[in-house]
Amino acid sequence: MENEMVINKDNCNQEKELDPNYLLGNQEHMNKTTKVSWILVITTISTSLGCSIPAGYNTGVVNAPAEILKQWCNETIMNRYDVQFSSAQLDGLWSILVSIFLIGGIIGGVAGGKLANALGR
């Protein structure tokens, strides 16, 4: 029992660490009911629309020139590798390209804050 440490007022940095309510996590505040404010509702709706509208817009922006980009991909593959893609293969390639676009957005969203902190904040 040499490694056992007893917590008392002599070796404690703050008195609140000895308070039973602090140690056990007093749950009194959870019994109170609160009202949802109109500011919270407006903020929630604005955030939801602010996230979904640009995502839908960007998907539309990517899909608008789809036929032209599929044709360009097919011509490039034909010139470089002498292979002609079928319509189904072009659709599969287009699906992969759009998915990569969305994955790039996810990576940017996750890493953007850390990159901004490292480079300039």
Description:
Its main location: membrane. It comes from Macrosiphum euphorbiae (potato aphid). GO terms for molecular function: hexose transmembrane transporter activity. Residues 44-121 form the Major facilitator superfamily (MFS) profile domain. With 121 residues, this protein is mainly α. It has a domain at 70-121. The chain is 66% helix and 0% strand. The protein contains 4 helices and no strands. Helix 3 (66-81) packs across helix 4. The two termini are 49 Å apart.
Helical content stands at: 55-70%
Structural class category: mainly alpha
Oligomer category: single chain
Q: How much β-strand is present in the residues?
A: under 5%
CA radius of gyration? 29 Å
Tally of contiguous helical segments? 4
Q: Please outline the major beta sheet.
A: none
Low-confidence stretches: none
Total strand segments = 0
Write the H/E string, N to C: HHHH
What general form does the structure show? elongated
Distance, first to last CA: 49 Å
- Rounded mean pLDDT is 78
What is the fold's blueprint, element by element?
Layout: H1 20-24, H2 38-63, H3 66-81, H4 87-119
Transmembrane segments: 36-57, 93-116
Organism: Macrosiphum euphorbiae
Membrane topology: Multi-pass membrane protein
Summed up, what is this model?
By secondary structure, the protein is mainly α. Helix content is 66%, strand content 0%.
Q: Can you tag this structure with a few keywords?
A:
elongated, 66% helix, mainly alpha, 121 residues
